[in-house]
Every structure is written in structure tokens, then in C-alpha cells.
Amino acid sequence: MRAKFISSILVLFLLVLIAGCASATDILVTRVIDGDTIEVSIAGTIYTIRYIGLDAPELDDKRPEYCALAQEATRYNQQLVEGETVRLEKDISETDKYGRLLRYVYVDDIFVNAELVRQGLAWAITYEPDTKYQDYLEEMEAEARQDKIGVWDTSKPPHIIVENVEITGIFYDGLVPNVESDEYVEIANFGDESQELTGCVLVDISDGYPSFTFPSYILAPGKSIRVYTNEYHPEWGGFSFEYPQAIWNNSEPDVAVLYDNQGREVSRMSY
């Protein structure tokens, strides 16, 4: 009976440690996984901690610039916390959908979450309902953006690699008389991951014009969008060449080409 009582006390103590109140426990960081995730030892048990209120670039990002920033964020996180004892502070949620503990992390007098954002090595991201320090994190992000450091360095656009995206059709015989403003080019994502089309250019290379440059846009897996000649259809992305006359020649087929933001060909189609 006594053994069961002692065991219950130990379990209760462990739960108190995991709760991670800011005023309480020093926790040993055993490993830094990346720029926003670490592993810690709590009473001899290893737990994964996901920092609250930010998102660092992913190490497996296929865009070279963001991959480099992810490595830099990971190294800086290691400098801050690896092998150190830290204090953990809970907000509202205990864990995320992956079972990782959600915490604010402190080492000595450094608020690690905010420091990574301040250095431009992470974005301040609001994850409801855990928003206790979100205003402060956004202030740190504004400071990094003003200094144009890290993810906010806009001196050159990062190369956005586009994969498994194809032009699937050209509706070249529009129903609107003369101007055929309802013509469109359809583009689909056949991959299993979302693809960023920001800065990609769609052009009729047969004539060399017109061209359409995508604004900030993510194409979800299995989804299609259309770029119309001079109409707007939000259900298909709301994109238009804004060209006042027909683009796609009915009698002499044109060629549509999609380029990435560095001018490399992604897909082409004629009809």
C-alpha cells in the first residue's frame, strides 16, 4: 500500500513538472531538434517542447535560402539552450496535435522564443488560444523586419522551387464575342505537398506576351487554379491577365509556359 502511495506521489510530482510554470522548475535541454523545437529531460523522462508563438524555417525546406536560414536558426537555438537548464512556462494548451508540450522557454534572463524572432530566425505566428506574449513577439518581429535580417532580408528573392505543378488545359475558344475575356489557362498541383507559386510567371511564348506574375499564393495538393484573359473567378483563384483582347489564337495554336520566380521552366502546353 505504501509503495502505491509513493508511486502516486511521484506521478503527481512529474505532472507538476510537466505543467511547467515559469516560477518553478529548471529543466535540462538534451537536444535541439531545429529552430523552434527541443527535447528536455524532466525527472529522467524525455519530452519534446515546441516553442509557442513562432515558426522557424524548416530544415527540409527545398528552397536553398530558407534551408540555410533553418540551419542558422537551429545553430542559434543550440547556442542558447543546448545542454542548459531552462525554465518552461505554459500558456493555455498543454500539447499540440503531435503530442509536443507547448511552452515559453527561458534560459537565465533570455526569453528564447522572443530572441529567435528578434534575430529574424523565426516568424511570430499566432496559435490560438496561446497568445499571452503575442504582442511582444510581434514587436520583436517588427524590429527584425525593420533591420532586414534573417527571414526579412529582402536583398534578393529566395528561389522558390516548384514541383509537380503542370498546365493541364487551355480554354482557347472563349464565348465572349471578339475579346474572349473568358479564355483561361488551368494549372494543377499533382503532388502531395502544397506548392508556392509566388513570383511564378505565366506567358504566351508564341507572341512573347502577355504575361501574368503570381502574387503570394500557395497551391494546395490536388487543387487547380485558372488564369483568365480578362475575368475574375474567385472560385478558381481570382487571377487574370487583365488583357483587353483574346490571347489564345483559335486557328494557330499558341504555347503557354509557366516559369518559376527565377525564370526556370516549370511546365508548358500547346493545344
For the biggest β-sheet, the strand order reads 1-2-3-6-5
- Rg measurement, Å: 25 Å
Q: Strand fraction band? A: 25-35%
Classified by CATH, the class of the largest domain is: Mainly Beta
Structure annotation, total helices: 4
- Give the structural class: alpha+beta
Tell me what you see in this structure.
By secondary structure, this protein is α+β, with helices and mostly antiparallel strands. The chain has two domains: 2-152, OB fold (Dihydrolipoamide Acetyltransferase, E2P) (Beta Barrel); 165-269, Sandwich (Immunoglobulin-like), CATH 2.60.40. Helix content is 21%, strand content 29%. The strands form five sheets. A five-stranded mixed beta barrel has the order 1-2-3-6-5. The protein has a four-stranded mixed beta sheet with strand order 9-10-15-16, with no helix packed on it. A four-stranded antiparallel beta sheet has the order 13-12-17-18, with no helix packed on it. A hairpin with a 5-residue loop joins β17 (256-259) and β18 (265-269). α3 (112-118) packs parallel to α4. The chain starts with a helix and ends with a strand. Residues 1-24 have low confidence and may be disordered.
